[in-house]
Amino acid sequence: MSQTKQSAASTITQAQNVQVDSQTVEFDKDFISKMENAPHVSEVSIDAMVLLKMMNHCTEKVPIQVAGQLLGLDNGGVLEITNCFPFPSYSDNMTEEERSDQDEKYQIEMLQGLSDVNVDNNTVGWYQSTYMDSFMNSTTIANQYQYQRTLGNKRCIHLVFDPLRTRRGELFIKAYRLSDKFIDAVKMAYLQQNELSTMKKKYDTKNKNKKEDIEVLTEKANLPESIENIQLTQEILAKLNLSDKDIFDELPIQIHNYALVQAFLLDFENDEPSHLLAGYDSLDMANTQFLTRGLESLIEYADGLSHENHRYQTYQKKLAQQKQYVAKKKDKTQEEQEFMLKSVQQPNQLNYLMIANQLGNACDQMRAFSSQSLNLSKIADIAMKKE
């Protein structure tokens, strides 16, 4: 599934630059400029039928995590999602290159077909199924970064749907976008890595005799094409006060129902058999499977956090040893000494942020689940005493 999502963002531009009736569309530059300077999307509006299509796709594939593309438009700060389609699944025997080629062909054909029948075919993001907030990983962040970089940082979202929690009676769907603070952190890390690369070309003994052009980035440099090799350091986190809650911005979601859908729901409610309204099924507390999986996730995240702490402690020890070594090099300039210290690679703090976020969300879910079960237990106890 990860290969499918990774290739999705890379083919958006090509898929949307299609020809209509064999005539090339000429875009209004003033209109494009206004779109580029448009305000951030502050709300997401999703059509009920689109939500049902997405839910059906995610639920059918449980426990496999799946993804798909969202289509719609930005209307005055409200991102309206009017259509979607799933990404195809492939066999494990296919190579990444084959999957990428198939993804590109599939998306172009889908968007071209929607355009032919005059249906919205403007990509506004992607959706993904998840369980216990397992979507918070490096692949998801990298994919969302590619979408925002390709489509525009202000008008692209990531929808997350949890079919298992929804099955328990709680519609779990959320809309996210990488925060400006996180994008600033990526920019700072990119500049730092370029600075270190420049110093390496200048002072590394292996490259001393090589004449290479040294690229110098400025504050106005573009963002990197990918964040797969970007290293977020502790200094960047401290400077921007970046925590695990600052990676994504959550946007409010409004579910839009057509009048016919609302009429159907009202009619369905009135026709509901009376025997379904009785009994104590709503007090059922047989959710031990959810509780067990939740505890297993907590243990896994706690182990991951401990591993990241151990990596950072190892880095601090190596850095202390390097400082002692550099202190003995009196013949080195201050810049050379700074390069020698920076050559000790710091663990990527993005891994720490992701695990901390997953652990915090899992704790919140378990707390809410336990509180709900405790309330149901008290209500059931009162009901039994009355009988």
From TrEMBL:
Ranges where the MPN domain occurs: 44-182
CDD domains reported for this sequence: MPN_eIF3h
Chaperone is among the record's keywords: no
Pfam families xrefs: eIF3h_C (PF19445), JAB (PF01398)
One MF annotation (Gene Ontology) recorded for this entry: metallopeptidase activity
Lineage: Eukaryota, Discoba, Heterolobosea, Tetramitia, Eutetramitia
Signal peptide: none
Protein name: MPN domain-containing protein
Keywords: Cytoplasm, Initiation factor, Protein biosynthesis
One annotated Gene Ontology cellular component of this protein: eukaryotic translation initiation factor 3 complex
